[in-house]
Amino acid sequence: MGFEVRDVLAKSNLYERAGKDQHTFCIRVGRSYPYDVRVLANVRDNAYWVNTMLHEFGHAVYDKYVSPALPYLLRSRAHISSTEAVALMMGGLADDPGWISSVAGFPEEELVPDLAKLAERRRADKLIFTRWALVMYRFEKAFYENHDREDLNALWWDLVEKIQYVNRQASRTESDWVKIDVALAPVYYHNYVLDNLTAAQLRNHLEKHVIGGAFYEHEIAGRYLQEAFFSPGAREDWRHTVLRATGELLEPKYFVSALS
Ligand SMILES: [Zn+2]
Q1: How far is the CA of 32 from the centre of ligand 1 (A)?
Q2: Rounded to an integer, what distance in angstroms lies between the CA atom of residue 249 and that of residue 3?
Q3: Structural contact between residues 204 and 253, judged by C-beta atoms closer than 8 angstroms
Q4: Is-contact 57 90, C-beta < 8 A?
Q5: What is the pLDDT of residue 260?
Q6: 158 CA distance to ligand 1 centroid (A)?
Q7: Residues in the chain where the model's pLDDT stays below 50
Q8: Distance of CA 181 from the midpoint of ligand 1 (Å)
Q9: Rounded distance from Cα 185 to ligand 1 centre (Å)
Q10: Mind spelling out the 3-state secondary structure of the chain?
Q11: Is 207 exposed, middle or buried (0-12, 13-18, 19+ CB in 10 A)?
């Protein structure tokens, strides 16, 4: 795609070692140009890490190609959902049959028996996750409207039954609504849904209106992302970033059609 990431790779810490942080993330250290972008990961040789590395380097190219002509305070991403959308679009290539054969070099004929399984896994993953995110979103909304309410567990299970189709067990007494996400990353789950919607819309726009083919095979897609999405940094909010890059405001139909 024409993105240069060898400098990022050279500064990154990619492999496991004793005592090392077990998370994975991309970070830009400071905002002086040339930007100092690094990835910390614990890479192993499997499909999970292909996805994760593509994901983190999606963040990395966004961070790297923010225009240095911007004022210091705007040399950032538009919104968390903007950088996550790019990271998800790139990470999703790990189970994209076109990428697996044309970029990763896995023989196409050997993929054929697994194509339906791959598609089904992608679809199930997105559908199941979206329902889970909606449970979290609606629960927290009600929780913050009245955090003194006594029926939080009933509220939780009402939502789980209605949205995830998982039935409560009468014998269970644990406070199932108590989640580390609620405590440590409150009011965050809507972002995951925005990320997925934005990623689908961006990919659709690149492939239908910019390239006319798979976005990951074309340098034009890289240049387009750089100019329309990364370079303007935090000059506009996420809504206008999506509008500028795709010609319309965020629109769920691309996510829906990517699932069908
Ligand atoms: Zn991410």
Answers
A1: 22
A2: 26
A3: no
A4: yes
A5: 82
A6: 30
A7: none
A8: 16
A9: 14
A10: CCCCCHHHHHHCECCCCCCCCCCCEEEEECCCCCCEEEEECCCCCCHHHHHHHHHHHHHHHHHHCCCCCCCHHHCCCCCHHHHHHHHHHHHHHHHCHHHHHHCCCCCHHHHHHHHHHHHHHHHHHHHHHHHHHHHHHHHHHHHHHCCCCCCHHHHHHHHHHHHHCCCCCCCCCCCCCCCHHHHHCCCCHHHHHHHHHHHHHHHHHHHHHHHCCCHHHCHHHHHHHHHHHHCCCCCCCHHHHHHHHHCCCCCCHHHHHHHC
A11: middle
Please check whether residue 89 is in contact with residue 199, taking contact to mean a CB–CB distance below 8 angstroms.
yes
Say what the pLDDT of residue 2 is: 95
- The per-residue pLDDT for range 82-105, each reduced to its tens digit, is 999 999 999 999 999 999 999 999
Phi then psi for residue 13, to 5 deg, are -120, 100
Are the C-beta atoms of 48 and 32 separated by less than 8 Å? no
Query: Ligand 1 center to residue 109 CA distance, Å?
Result: 32
**Residue 180's pLDDT is what?**
83
Say how many Å lie between the CA of residue 250 and the centre of ligand 1: 19
Q: What is the pTM of this model?
A: 0.92
Q: What is the mean pLDDT of the chain?
A: 95
Q: Which amino acid is at 219?
A: E
Instruction: Please report, for residues 24, 25, 111, 181, the alpha-carbon distance to residue 133 in angstroms, rounded to integers and kept in the order given.
Output: 21, 21, 31, 11
Position 179 scores a pLDDT of: 84
